[in-house]
Design a protein that fits this description.
By secondary structure, this protein is mainly alpha-helical. It has one domain: Protein Binding, DinI Protein, Chain A. The chain is 69% helix and 6% strand. It is built from six helices and four strands, in the order αβαααβββαα. The strands form two sheets. The protein has a two-stranded parallel ribbon. A two-stranded antiparallel ribbon has the order 3-4. It starts with a helix and ends in a 14-residue tail after the last helix.
């Protein structure tokens, strides 16, 4: 009898603790992309990307010209063995330099992206913490991570995306509000409706 009473007491404590937990979720990626300041970040990243791509194109065109020069001279039999070997080594060196430049450019773009997004992420985190504190949320989960979803199911009433958008200064149109409430089927942010 004593064991049953302890078991019942344990279950009641568990239920009491569970009743105190309030859980919400949002799509952090969508929030980020919809923030007013994101357009400026995106444009800066596009400008940087274009500069890197232009440099890569110049390097690849130079390599292509050198490759064509090599093939032309080789087909004419105008190269000694030493010249042929030197040109092949030069071509391989150029190719390696381009690959290294591409790798470096990707790393610099990732660092630049992180640098530019940091203030937005900080602002979003502060808004999340404020919402959690004011409305008593114990947890607010990100429903989408890296293009996928980690939330398999969640009641719409626990979706805090609309509240977060308003806190972040995003203009919430009636169409967007309907989409977020599940009344529309078009992708978030398009405002095109059904």
């Amino acid at each position: 009898m004593k064991k049953i009473a302890i078991l019942c007491l344990g279950m009641m404590c568990t239920l009491a603790v569970q009743a105190q937990v309030k859980i919400g979720y949002t799509n952090g990626e969508a929030l980020l992309y919809m923030m007013p300041d994101y357009k400026g970040v995106d444009e800066q990243l596009r400008v940087s990307q274009r500069k890197y791509q232009e440099n890569i194109n110049i390097k690849q065109q130079y390599l292509q010209a050198k490759l064509e020069e090599y093939r032309d001279n080789e087909s004419k039999g105008a190269l000694t063995a030493e010249q042929k070997e030197k040109m092949q080594n030069d071509l391989m060196t150029l190719q390696k330099e381009i690959e290294e430049y591409i790798d470096d450019a990707e790393q610099q773009m990732q660092a630049r992206r992180a640098e530019l997004l940091k203030p937005l992420v900080t602002k979003m985190q502060a808004a999340l913490e404020g919402l959690a504190k004011e409305e008593g949320y114990s947890y607010i989960f990100n429903s989408a991570v890296a293009g996928g979803s980690v939330l398999l199911h969640g009641p719409k009433e626990h979706d805090v995306t609309l509240k977060m958008l308003k806190r972040l200064g995003v203009e919430v149109t009636p169409e967007l509000e309907k989409q977020l409430k599940g009344e529309e089927v078009s992708p978030i942010g398009t405002g095109t409706g059904k």
